[in-house]
Amino acid sequence: IQRNLQIRIEEHAKYLEKMFDQQNRRMNCLKKSEPE
């Protein structure tokens, strides 16, 4: 049971990382398009 939980946590972490990366790219695009 614990091993399954570990795998699930790792998969979730990868998923969160992917989402975070996409958000970062979007923010970077917004920053680039907006002159300071």
Automatic annotation (TrEMBL):
Q: Where is the MYB-CC type transcription factor LHEQLE-containing domain?
A: 1-25
InterPro entries from the xrefs? Answer: Myb_CC_LHEQLE (IPR025756)
Q: Which domain of life is it from?
A: Eukaryota
This protein is called MYB-CC type transcription factor LHEQLE-containing domain-containing protein
- Specify the species: Nymphaea colorata (pocket water lily)
